[in-house]
Amino acid sequence: MKKLLSCFTGLVAAGTLAASPAWADDIDTKVESLLQQMTLEEKVGQLNQFTDFWDVTGPAPTGEEQEVKYELIKKGLIGSMLNAVGTEDVKTLQTFAVENSRLGIPMIFGYDVIHGHKTIFPLPLAETASWDLDMMEQTARVAAVEASAQGLNWTFAPMIDVGRDPRWGRVMEGSGEDPYLGGKVAIARVNGLQGDDLGAADTIAATLKHFAGYGFGEAGKDYNRADVGTVTLFNTILPPFKAAIDEANPRTVMNAFNTVNGIPATGDEYLQRDILKGEWGFDGFVISDWGSIEEMVDHGFAEDEREAARLAIKAGSDMDMESYAYLENLESLVESGEVDVALIDDAVRRILRVKHELGLFEDPYRYIDPEREETLLMSDQHLDVALKMAERSVVLLKNDGALLPLQAGERVALIGALAADKDSPLGNWRAQGEESSAVSLVEGFAAAGLNFSFSNGVDVEVGDANFASEVVVNTDDRTGMDQAIETARSADKVVLVLGEDALQSGEGRSRADIGFPGLQQELLEKIVAVNPNVVLVVMSGRPLVLTWADENVPTIVQAWHLGHQSGHALTNVLTGAYNPSGKLPMTFPRSVGQLPIYYDYLNTGRPGPRKEVFWQHYIDEDNAPLYPFGHGLSYTDFKYDRLRVRQADEGFEVSVRVRNTGKAAGEEVVQLYIRDHVASVSRPVRQLKGFEKVSLDPRQAQRVTFQLTSEELGFYNGRGEFVVEPGDFDVFVGGSSAATLSDTFTLKR
Ligand code: NOJ
């Protein structure tokens, strides 16, 4: 283990970890002096985070527990709260802490601000489909402005778990399957949330989550075990975390519910102490996930809650979210000598430091400004950002016969319950987004003056689809079917909106069948039978299996859950007012049996294609996905040529000419992939190493240049050592991971 870690040290030393700023010394002195005054009980107090009463994001506390919390706050035994939102509530709680506790240490207030706070943006996965890092930084900035205006100073975002199995409902919250893209998105989001000055009243601390391997839950089941080898851990799971820590200085990291190779991430000393805080030098604090300390008992990793507390603090989990395990056990564990007080001191220091950086010691009420709360939420400016982001998040999957954009005067049948749904576009994890407050597609069409008739078709779900209960899918109510078919029959074109309800993806929403829920597939087939001119708009929090649709429908648009401006943004895309530019951040499978599926797979010893049976394939399905990672069309065409690879000072310079050969102006995400021919560890058939979004008028051309450093050609080997090995590499440049324009270069010794 030691050997493995020493290799990381070299990388950190050579990396971009910023030197401590001058004020950091000052903070350290203040933290130290406060620490000296604290009793053991008060120290342990700082390590507890409890939920507020009215909005829970895990199993709800009972009434009795709630009463107890007020008493605990008064004694200084709660360091942080989550789910307390609004200046009034936060002020009440903060006043309790500051005025009643002996040392008056302010609490830090966290909340899941995942894709917007009051103004809701597209799902994080959808935003990633824009590949527009500036826009993602902007939406995170707006989210921070709004959250801080409601008294918050910390968010549990961004989630940067690499996700390769769309059965896992939480892929909606991440940035897809690729560690390189995921790292860039993580940096943009942390920068947006934390801004230039964490002490400013409109910036909030970010959390990288979930450390680590939560996206690799076996069979796509939430909370399930992740069994990953060293090569996958170091090359796929950890890189987005490392990139963000090196370049954006996130102040907190959340660990995870799952086990990684048999060890609960929350109790994993190697991951948290050795790698994160040791080799990477992370100096913020680690928060557990909700109850994940006590869950180590269910994992069969700790005998009881007391042992769970001991293992978690030892492993480097600094703050306990809602387990009560630290509160009830840490003091006596120290007194009995089972836990070294130095571990407690280290955790307290980290937490106090972040509180200082947030400016809470200077002014515990810094984030409590009713005027900001009154004026900033859902401002026109924020809604404008939401519109831009939503337009850029849409992916045009196919457009045979140029059915899109819709033409003026065409009679359109707009069909599907999701077209009129004002709630589902807000998606899961919508923070303070008000129920049913999004612009629906029906409203978008009406506002644009389109000539359309709406028909509901079939409902997606029935019953009470709220946070506490399961979504019940409609499997027998066909009463709207006939009318929808008639509406479709008489129209020039049909825009059919199908997919998932807001709560069919997200935490705890794994699905074994990722087709259209309920009767929607039946509706699709009946509509196609009466009118072939179907534009299928898919709203979902994950890639769905769209194979039948791909074979039978000329045009498909992936619309995710786009947030408040969904209806306007989609209308703009469908009419061509905005030319779609999104590219898939996850591979779309042909069938569930292909999962997990991703573009950077290994060649294997039997790559095929072969005619005989003994090569790696399915006998009943293609290997190829339905739509590859990075895929996305436009209403114009882009051609790539004149690829050049040159030796440069630091490595290689790769450049390519991109031309807009169609009739509309458009944006294209130019993607660069490499393949390492031979290495000491088998390397993926392709790996994303660069991308740039360019905007081109018709007939305009641009040369796009990428710098590829030698270090970027390196990888972690089977011992977790970072190595750069000389040899031949292919480079591919184009508009998706299936790009064919390529060249070869050699990295010399
Ligand atoms: C559990 C989720 O896994 C985590 O991401 C979230 O931040 C917490 N609940 C708090 O709501």
List keywords for this structure.
23 helices; Immunoglobulin-like; alpha/beta; disordered N terminus; 749 residues; 32% helix; 6-stranded mixed beta sheet; 27 strands; Rossmann fold; binds 1-deoxynojirimycin
Q: How would you summarize what this structure contains?
A:
The chain is an alpha/beta fold and 749 residues long. The protein is 32% helix and 18% strand. 1-deoxynojirimycin binds at residues 57-58, 82, 112, 156, 209, 289-290, 507.
Overview of the structural elements:
This protein has 749 residues and is an alpha/beta fold. Among the domains are: 1-105, no CATH class; 385-577, Rossmann fold (3-Layer(aba) Sandwich); 638-747, Immunoglobulin-like (Sandwich). It contains 23 helices and 27 strands. It has a 6-stranded mixed beta sheet with strand order 11-18-17-16-12-13, with helices on both faces. A 5-stranded parallel beta sheet has the order 4-3-2-1-10. Helix 4 links the parallel strand 1 and strand 2 (80-82). The site of 1-deoxynojirimycin (NOJ) has 9 residues, from loops.
List the helices and strands and how they pair.
Layout lengths: L1 H13 L7 H16 L2 H7 L1 E4 L11 H12 L5 E3 L4 H14 L7 E4 L12 H5 L4 H17 L4 E2 L23 H16 L12 E5 L18 H8 L1 H10 L3 E4 L3 E2 L2 E2 L4 H11 L5 E3 L7 H4 L6 H11 L4 E2 L3 H11 L5 H17 L12 H7 L3 H14 L1 E5 L12 E4 L1 H4 L20 H7 L4 E4 L5 E2 L9 E2 L7 H9 L3 E7 L20 H11 L3 E6 L7 H6 L2 E4 L7 H10 L62 E10 L3 E10 L5 E11 L10 E10 L4 E9 L5 E2 L5 E2 L3 E8 L6 E7 L2
Parallel strand pairs: 1-2, 1-10, 2-3, 3-4, 5-6, 6-9, 12-13, 12-16, 16-17, 17-18
Antiparallel strand pairs: 7-8, 11-18, 14-15, 19-20, 20-23, 21-22, 21-26, 24-25, 26-27
